[in-house]
């Protein structure tokens, strides 16, 4: 489930506390079981550190929106949490040995992972306003101690450059070849039935879930001098493009849904490259919706969504009525 706990604007301190309460209580109970003398406010400090906020108060003040986003995508070597920051905070607030701090770091991150709660850093980045900047700045504040785990935070900390703000399709190479995802997208564009779907449910598939990707793999601290050596990052756009087609199967009329999801990726010292992931479903005439384990919500009312377009001149993907990266900016064609 990609249940939005809060979205838009800044979350109030009371909302953040309430959302984190079950997680903080689980951490509290577990650490007590491990023999630590700890109170709820200290458990809250450890959880805040796991998200990347130096202090719980800083997290409350930032107005960070929390979303439930179980790990449905991403590479195993990326983490959305910071165990070493939990260890440091545990050493500061509980009088414990370093080995015990390590155990606490692992335990807290285990429960955070199980909760599926993450700070909606991508939304903070895409909104690109004062509230978004405040959240990302709070997370970037101690980046010299611990490398960020989110691409958006690494960008805010100045560790990597931001990706291009517009979405363009690369030109085919000299032999007329292009990426398979891009070729599929262009074909769909030419049929003219592509729509912008914001915040797609991860149940639609791992490819569509990549729209919420926000990952950064920073340098180990001992290699800080080797700037740009291994700063790999991946960033989704918060939307997918859905193509809906009517078709006729032997069993009768059917509908096909194909999702084209853009992601930008950066490896080591290279620039950002965009790629498109595709996945799709066919729902047959008997409308057995769960035949493919498909959630009912995939019956997307496309006529309520904005139409995605492709500009032959500047090769931008854009949509009428959409802002930011879908705005068709800087092009002389209307
Ligand atoms: Zn254009």
Short account of what is shown:
This protein is of the alpha+beta class and 334 residues long.
Bound molecules: zinc ion
Classify the secondary structure makeup into a structural class.
Answer: alpha+beta
Distance linking N and C termini: 38 Å
Number of helices: 10
Radius of gyration: 22 Å
Beta strand count = 10
Approximate helicity band: 25-40%
Strand proportion = 15-25%
Low-confidence residue ranges: 1-7, 222-226
* Quaternary structure classification: single chain
Secondary structure layout:
Blueprint: H1 13-33, H2 40-51, H3 56-62, E1 66-68, H4 83-93, H5 98-115, E2 117-119, H6 121-127, H7 130-140, H8 151-156, H9 180-191, E3 194-198, H10 206-209, E4 214-217, E5 232-236, E6 239-249, E7 252-266, E8 272-283, E9 308-310, E10 317-319
Antiparallel strand pairs: 1-2, 3-6, 4-5, 5-7, 6-7, 7-8, 9-10
Helix pairs in contact: 1-2, 1-5, 2-4, 4-5, 6-7
The structure holds zinc ion.
Zinc ion binds at residues 311, 313-314, 316, 328, 331, 333.
Q: Would you write up a description of this structure?
A:
It is built from 10 helices and 10 strands. With 334 residues, the protein is α+β, with helices and mostly antiparallel strands. The chain folds into 2 domains: 13-152, no CATH class; 180-326, no CATH class. Strands 3, 4, 5, 6, 7 and 8 form a 6-stranded antiparallel sheet that branches. Strands 1-2 form a two-stranded antiparallel ribbon. It has a two-stranded antiparallel ribbon with strand order 9-10. Helix 1 packs across helix 5 and helix 4 (83-93) crosses helix 5 (98-115). It is elongated and about 65 Å long. The protein binds zinc ion. Zinc ion binds at residues 311, 313-314, 316, 328, 331, 333.
């Amino acid at each position: 489930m990609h249940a939005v706990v809060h979205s838009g604007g800044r979350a109030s301190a009371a909302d953040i506390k309430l959302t984190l309460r079950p997680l903080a209580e689980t951490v509290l109970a577990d650490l007590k079981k491990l023999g630590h003398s700890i109170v709820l406010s200290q458990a809250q400090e450890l959880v805040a550190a796991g998200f990347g906020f130096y202090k719980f108060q800083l997290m409350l003040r930032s107005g960070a929106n929390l979303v439930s986003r179980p790990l449905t995508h991403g590479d195993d070597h990326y983490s959305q949490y910071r165990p070493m920051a939990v260890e440091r905070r545990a050493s500061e607030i509980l009088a414990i040995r370093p080995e015990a701090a390590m155990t606490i770091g692992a335990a807290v991150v285990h429960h955070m992972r199980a909760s599926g709660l993450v700070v909606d850093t991508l939304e903070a980045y895409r909104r690109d306003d004062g509230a978004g900047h405040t959240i990302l700045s709070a997370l970037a504040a101690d980046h010299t101690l611990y490398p960020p785990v989110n691409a958006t935070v690494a960008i805010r900390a100045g560790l990597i450059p931001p990706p291009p703000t517009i979405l363009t399709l690369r030109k085919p190479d000299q032999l007329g070849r292009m990426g398979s995802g891009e070729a599929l997208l262009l074909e769909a564009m030419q049929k003219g039935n592509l729509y912008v779907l914001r915040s797609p449910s991860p149940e639609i598939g791992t490819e569509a879930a990549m729209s919420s990707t926000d990952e950064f793999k920073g340098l180990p601290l001992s290699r800080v001098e080797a700037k740009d050596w291994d700063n790999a990052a991946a960033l989704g756009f918060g939307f997918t493009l859905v193509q809906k087609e009517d078709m006729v199967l032997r069993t009768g009329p059917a509908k096909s849904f194909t999702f084209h999801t853009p992601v930008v990726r950066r490896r080591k010292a290279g620039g950002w490259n965009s790629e498109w992931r595709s996945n799709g479903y066919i729902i047959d005439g008997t409308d057995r919706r769960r035949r493919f384990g498909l959630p009912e919500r995939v019956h997307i009312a496309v006529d309520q969504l904005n139409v995605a377009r492709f500009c032959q001149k500047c090769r931008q993907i854009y949509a009428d009525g959409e802002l930011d990266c879908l705005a068709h900016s800087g092009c002389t064609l209307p």
